[in-house]
Design goal:
Helix content of chain A: 25-40%
Strand content of chain B: 5-15%
Helix content of chain B: over 70%
Largest interface: A-B, 25 and 18 residues
Oligomer: heterodimer
Strand order of the largest sheet of chain A: 6-7-8-3-9-10
Number of helices of chain A: 7
Number of helices of chain B: 9
């Protein structure tokens, strides 16, 4: 569960990125976070992953109070979230299998656990036959699937996807969104940050719109006006 | 640190050394060069210190005995001199022996023929444990009944002390500077590796890697670079030292120098190299990693 209450974020430069954001995302929800560039979407993600600390307000993410979290607890908080980026962020000299298993290594999983879990997740994202390939041997859509597999492999309670379709054509984008919807149907909370208006409107999901550091709308109608 | 990770992280550290082959080679070369220079200064300093100590031990204090004492009485004073803590040894030299020595040191011994030994005094040639407290020891000797006069070369003693101090100080400064240089080089090598793997580290952090998980492979890498460098440096030092020692001993003009055999100092040099390599490698890595681990 995610709970932000009157969250403010001011950068060292004095720029006010968030001016009092309050929102709640329940477990198992699928949420779109939309808004123009510079509206504060990335700031919210950075706060949720504890890359930044709120200047004011309270944040509760999967059992952790982020406004007061201790540095040594941050890795454990991050293990409850899987993050997907627009540019995939895969390790170029590791195979697909290694890129995914790497995330399990990090949390201290045993070889037996890795051997059992990684093939299952690769199958879930439709890459069961591509485990030995290197990222540059895959299409953009497939690379994003690897990133999704990596985000999923540790069974996080939430997936945050930051512009996951930004580098993909419409067909691949739709496939990725459908994959995320499928993951959500298995019980994982999914938050997708995107600019893709058509894609948002294609799914009947909760849409939170943010502009100039404030939430300007939050509802199920899916309507979103691009800048 | 989870036990499942230890083997994997050690392997990653070793992989890092070979993955960045040229950079690792450069770091090892610089470490070897610094360690050899450091080691050479230590060994030169050690040899010179031993030489100075030997020369110093020849700087004796002469304690003259009352001329009214019989030889037996004069000899008995020796036990009192030997009781002084800083006295290493007191050798009795009778007046006859002293005259004989004196005459033999002259170019034209015939001039001194006929001189009566009675004109001289019995004496003790006293060598000291620590020449830096020569004045105090001489004063103690002068307090002994039967000792009427002493003769000591303080300026020689002070000169040796100065030479020793300069040597030690120079060596210490050079060693310190080279230690910092080695630390800097290893630190920069690891820093480059960190920059190379910046993206990987960012991903590791994003998926919940702890700082120790991120840190260990780089520490292993630094450790290996340091240890490899120190082992290579040790063997080169050994070879070069033996070669130079052989050459110096073979040269007539350098007979004054008596070189300590490397085998005598081998365990000390090996341990010193390994410890220095270890510290330089591990500390160099840790210095670089610190800034990357700010969460």
């Amino acid at each position: 569960m995610i709970e932000l209450k009157d969250v403010e974020l001011t950068y060292e430069t004095g720029t006010k990125a968030l001016k009092g954001v309050t929102l709640t995302i329940e477990d198992g929800e699928f949420v779109f976070l939309v808004g123009p560039s510079g509206s504060g979407k990335t700031s919210i993600i950075k706060l949720m992953t504890s890359e930044l600390t709120p200047t004011a307000g309270t944040m509760f993410v999967n059992g952790f109070h982020l406004e007061s979290i201790r540095a040594r607890d941050i890795p454990y908080m991050r293990r409850t979230i899987g993050v997907i980026f627009r540019d995939f962020r895969l390790i170029a000299d590791k195979t697909v299998y290694e890129n995914v298993s790497f995330a399990m290594r990090v949390i201290g999983a045993s070889d037996a656990e890795i051997k059992k879990r990684v093939p299952y997740v690769l199958e879930l994202v439709g890459l069961e036959n591509k485990g030995r390939r290197l990222p540059n041997e895959l299409s953009g859509g497939e690379q994003q699937r690897v990133a999704i597999a990596r985000a999923l492999v540790n069974n996080p309670s939430m997936i945050i996807a930051d512009e996951p379709t930004g580098n993909l054509d419409p067909q691949r984008s739709l496939e990725i969104m459908m994959l995320l919807e499928q993951i959500n149907s298995l019980g994982t909370t999914v938050m997708v940050v995107t600019h893709a208006m058509e894609l948002v409107n294609r799914f009947t999901k909760r849409v939170i719109a943010i502009d100039d550091g404030l939430i300007v709308s939050d509802g199920m109608d899916g309507y979103y006006t691009n800048e | 640190m989870n036990k499942n990770n230890i083997g994997y992280l050690l392997k990653e550290g070793v992989r890092g050394v070979f993955l960045h082959g040229f950079r690792s080679f450069a770091a090892v070369c610089v470490t070897v060069a610094c360690l050899i220079i450091m080691g050479s200064f230590c060994l030169i300093s050690l040899n010179l210190n031993v030489m100075v100590s030997e020369l110093e031990s020849e700087n004796e204090v002469l304690a003259y005995i009352d001329e009214n004492y019989s030889e037996a009485e004069a000899k008995s004073v020796g036990s009192q001199i030997n009781m002084i803590a800083n006295v290493k040894n007191a050798v009795f030299v009778s007046r006859e022996k002293a005259l004989e020595q004196f005459v033999s040191e002259q170019d034209d011994a015939s001039i001194f023929e006929g001189i009566d030994a009675e004109t001289l005094r019995d004496r003790f040639e006293v060598t000291l444990v620590d020449n830096t407290i020569m004045k105090q020891t001489v004063s103690d000797i002068e307090q002994i009944n039967g000792v009427v006069k002493t003769s000591a070369h303080y300026e020689i003693s002070d000169g040796f002390q100065t030479v020793r101090n300069v040597l030690n100080l120079t060596s210490a400064v050079i060693i310190l500077v080279l230690l910092v240089v080695s630390l800097f080089i290893i630190s920069n090598t690891v820093k480059l590796a960190l920059y190379d793997r910046k993206e990987e580290i960012a991903i590791m952090r994003m998926v919940g890697a702890t700082n120790s998980f991120i840190r260990l492979p780089f520490i292993v890498e630094g450790f290996l670079l340091g240890i490899i460098g120190s082992v290579i440096a040790f063997f080169i030092e050994w070879g070069v030292y033996d070669l130079l020692a052989e050459r110096i001993e073979a040269m007539d003009t350098l007979q004054l120098f008596r070189i300590i055999p490397f085998t005598t100092v081998l365990p000390f040099v090996l341990v010193a190299y390994l410890i220095t390599g270890f510290l330089v490698g591990v500390m160099g890595s840790m210095l670089s990693i610190r800034k990357f681990l700010q969460v």
